[in-house]
Structure formats: structure tokens, C-alpha cells
Amino acid sequence: MDKNSATKTQASSVAITDYFKQQSARVEQWLERLLPASNKAPVTIHEAMRYSIFAGGKRLRPALVIATGEVFDADEQALLPTACALEMIHTYSLIHDDLPAMDNDDLRRGRPTNHKVYGEAMAILAGDALLTQAFITLANLEGVSAETKVRVSAEVAQAAGTVNALIGGQVLDIQNEGRPVTAEELDAIHRAKTGALIRCCVRVGAMIGGASESELQLLTEYAEKSGLAFQIADDVLDATATSEELGKTAGKDEASQKATYVALYGIESARQRAEQLCQEAIEAVQKIGRETAQLEAIARFIVERKH
Asked: For the segment 223-256, what is each residue's pLDDT rounded down to a tens digit?
């Protein structure tokens, strides 16, 4: 990388970091409004929900909803609650993923996992409650037509389900622990487990903004490639970063004999594939012919991030 390219990359990294901070602040204001208060009975479940949802993190998924919606000047009254609903679903998946019956992790976003603080039963219920609250939020969307509300809710439900979606991907991930997998099998796991929610974030942002079918198709390509790049980068970080840097237990994939891109390709080849997917994602979104600088910057961030 030449000096000018390095400077440009550093500048875009700073800009996208600021963007995440701005959107995170907006999302957290809405989450405060949308979630039951911590002193609302039954208190323990609401404390547990808030413990995980307000534990920090990049808020990448809601930022994708917002950044895509902004391309089409989407109404904030629909865009921000939808972004929050996707963050609720993502957080529920993390709470359940950390449970002893799943990945059995003690650390998430730099602090003890939900079940370590509230116990396994309450952690399961906190995840269930966040998933339910997401659909309560979508049912109450304002600023869009009834048709769009139904379309967005159906898109989110599909992404959270079992067919090429979040739960189905988790099932495949569990079933393939400790056995060699092909590149096609690995892609199938992560297009579902990680990629489905990322694809959904981009698509619902576009739907709320009234994107055309051709625009939605290009954004879907952008999202699918970005989602796969995200998982590859995650696998590389798990193998190379410390627990302090990650905010979760490093080296867990190898210890659990997970099917990963690092195990299949090696670190350098995995990095190269992530970078290639990032470039293809950017090329897809540029074909829309609108202002997509933030979406391009998010794709770059996905492969360049350090945690």
C-alpha cells in the first residue's frame, strides 16, 4: 500500500468510527424508549435484557439499517426503531450463543456474559424477551405504509428463522464442530448464522426508503458479500487478537474445534478472501448510482477492524 492509499484508509477509518459513535448514540436513545424500564415488574428480566443490550459494541447492524435508509432519505420514525429491533435480535443471539449448551463463554463485550450474572434460566428468558420485543417494535412502526411494515416484519422474521437464516446457521455450526468441512459447507453456515442478519439490515433499510427492485438486488449483493467478509475477519481476529482486544474469549474457535475460515484456508488466505469480498461488495453498491460512501466505508471497516 502506497503512502497516499494508507493515508486515505486511515482517514476513512476515522470517519466511519465517528459515524458509528453518532449512530450508536441515536440507537441507544431509541432503545431506552422501546425497552421496558429496569424498574418495571418483573424487574430481573428487564435488568437482564438491558444488561446485554447496553453492554456497548459497535452497533454495526443498526448502523447498516440507518446507512442504507439514508441513501434513500428514509423516515427516521421508521428507520431508527427498525435498527433497534435488529440490535435486539442480534443481542438475543449473543446471549444464547454464550450459554453453556452452546459456546459456553464467560466474556462478552468486555464483561461477564448474561448467564454468568443472572443465571442460565434468566439469560434464556432475556434472549427470548429481546426477540419478542423486536417484533413488538416492528408491529408499532410509524412513518411507513401498512404494506411496508408487513414487508419489513416478514424480512426480519425470515432472517431470524431456520432456513438460510440465523437459527439454521447456528444449528449447522453446532453440527459441524470437530469435523472437516468443505468451503461450500462453511459458506453455507456463515451465510446463515452471520450473513442473514447483516443482509436483512441492509434490505430493510432500503425497503423503508422505497428502493427499487434493481437497487434492492444490488444492495443484497453488497450485504451478502459484506456478511461473509465479516465472518472471515471475525475468524482471523479470533486466531490473532487477545481477549482484551476482542472483548470476548480469544482462541475459542480452535479450542472448540469450530469450522472456521482460518482452519480451512490459513490466516493470510482468509484475509485475502475477506478483502476480495469487500471490494466486490463496494463495486456492487456503487452501481446504484446514489451517495453510498457510508456503506462503502462500513464494508472497509468490516475487514480492517481490530476487534
From this structure: 999 999 999 999 999 888 666 656 666 566 655 6
Phi/psi of residue 103, each to 5°? -90, -10
Q: Is the domain covering 3-304 a CATH 1.10.600.10 domain?
A: yes
The answer to whether residue 291 scores a pLDDT higher than 50 is yes
**What average pLDDT does this structure show over 195-210?**
98
Whole-number Å distance between alpha carbons of 197 and 87: 10
248: cell is 470476548
Cα separation, 295 vs 286, whole angstroms: 9
Three-state secondary structure string covering 66-120: HHHHHHCCCCHHHHHHHHHHHHHHHHHHHHHHCCCCCCCCCEECCEECHHHHHCH
Alpha-carbon Rg of the chain, whole angstroms?
19
Neighbouring C-beta atoms of residue 272, cutoff 10 Å: 13
Cβ–Cβ under 8 Å, residues 65 and 86: yes
Closest CA to 149 of 79, 67, 217, 219: 79
- How many residues can be counted in the chain? 307
Average pLDDT, the chain: 91
Note the pLDDT tens digit of each residue in 275-285: 999 999 999 99
